[in-house]
Amino acid sequence: MIEMKDVYKSYPNGVKALNGINIKIRKGEFVYVVGPSGAGKTTFIKLIYREEKPTKGAVYVDGVNLAQLKERHIPQIRRKIGVVFQDFKLLPKLTVYENVAFALEVIEESNSKIRRRVMDVLDLVQLKNKARFLPDELSGGEQQRISIARAIVNNPAVLIADEPTGNLDPDTSWGIMEVLEQVSNRGTTVLMATHSKEIVNTIKKRVIAVDDGKIVRDEYRGEYGYES
């Protein structure tokens, strides 16, 4: 589902964020991406949804080389990729239902399909009863659940979660992990960048450790391996 071949990334200011990355991630895998701040995790993640392009090398998602993708084709590939951010990024003036439906409206799905899909994912994240609420009427954990619902409403092949529990208390974080595991069990490939040692060491998954722009560890059912 995801493959990087000899990927390098340097920024105009001279920072070398990634230095020779080679990795394969299969369909349906749940993978943690860990490492210290400034190690290259964010760049690694951004390459997968084409927020950044590699300086050198190839990045494949579902068989498409994002490094060679023309700008006009980026929206099409992003329909296959859902992204969940630490700070939710919900539209404050839209209801929960409208926030989730927005992703389907922009690709002009029928109203009946939009309603069916939105209510299905709201049921998955256990917030069907709050469809008419505004984001500021929800707790932080509920807002993150809505963020996940919005990211998966298109049935993406890949879900990227960038520090999804970073702003949440421990109890709420475990609830978010349950949702992400359910998404993975439905066949979606999940990549989660995290600094949570407790989550990684408790819910055992594949761990890719990035440090100084390189993959220094790749373990199935691995551990966090850093002080958090």
Explain how this protein is built.
There is one protein chain. The protein is an alpha/beta fold and 228 residues long. The chain has a domain at 28-39 and 76-219: P-loop containing nucleotide triphosphate hydrolases (Rossmann fold), CATH 3.40.50. The chain is 32% helix and 25% strand. It has 7 helices and 10 strands. It has helices at residues 41-48, 74-78, 96-105, 111-124, 140-152, 170-185, 197-202, and strands at 2-10, 16-25, 30-34, 56-61, 64-65, 81-84, 158-162, 189-193, 206-211, 214-219. The strands form 2 sheets. A 6-stranded mixed sheet has the order 6-7-8-3-9-10, sandwiched between helices. Strands 2-1-4-5 form a 4-stranded antiparallel sheet, with helices on one face. Helix 4 crosses helix 5 and helix 5 runs parallel beside helix 6. The protein is globular and about 45 Å long.
List the helices and strands and how they pair.
Elements: E1 2-10, E2 16-25, E3 30-34, H1 41-48, E4 56-61, E5 64-65, H2 74-78, E6 81-84, H3 96-105, H4 111-124, H5 140-152, E7 158-162, H6 170-185, E8 189-193, H7 197-202, E9 206-211, E10 214-219
Parallel strand pairs: 3-8, 3-9, 6-7, 7-8
Antiparallel strand pairs: 1-2, 1-4, 4-5, 9-10
Quick recap:
With 228 residues, the protein is α/β, with parallel strands linked by helices. The protein has helices spanning 41-48, 74-78, 96-105, 111-124, 140-152, 170-185, 197-202; strands at 2-10, 16-25, 30-34, 56-61, 64-65, 81-84, 158-162, 189-193, 206-211, 214-219.
